[in-house]
Amino acid sequence: MSVYFGTFENKVDRKGRVSVPAPFRQILATSAFQGIIAFRYQAPEAVEACSLEFMERLDQSVSDFDLFSEAHDDLAFNIFAESHQLPFDGEGRVILPAALLEITGIQEHAAFVGKGPTFQIWEPSALAERKSEARQRAPNLTLRLRRNEPGGAS
């Protein structure tokens, strides 16, 4: 599994087109869908983005809930009903729909931030504020490093 990391800021043109960072496009190059899936989910001012294959993993995870339960319904609405398939153009750009531009406040620049198996798209000043908050909380957090799986990378 490939991991998205780093932060990149790119210009958004008048049509809402923005270039997805090259390192992210390299990871997505092996996907069945040549583009990104973008949706509003956890961070109210950010867009979550991933590959089609990751969306399929999300579908499998949501399917663990009882089909007609409130939890299943809520997750399905928040993930799938709010999703947009954004294909790459010839220059590696996607068009951010007006609905996503509105919820994020993105106008002239978009910041892409790697988050492991997914990445997010933010308005740059909102991302700076979020990073500052995370840094303030980070000294209180600990992480137990998983042992390597047999045959896995070091």
Describe the protein in words.
- With 154 residues, the chain is of the alpha+beta class.
- The protein has one domain (7-139): 3-Layer(aba) Sandwich (Chemotaxis protein chec), CATH 3.40.1550.20.
- It is 33% helix and 23% strand.
- The chain has 5 helices and 8 strands, in the order ββαββααββαββα.
- The protein has helices at residues 22-28, 52-62, 70-81, 98-104, 124-137; strands at residues 7-11, 17-19, 35-39, 47-50, 83-87, 93-95, 109-114, 119-122.
- The strands form 2 sheets. A 6-stranded antiparallel sheet has the order 1-7-8-4-3-5.
- β7 and β8 (119-122) form a beta hairpin.
- The longest helix is centred in the last third of the chain and has 14 residues, at 124-137.
- It starts with 6 loop residues before the first strand and ends in a 17-residue tail after the last helix.
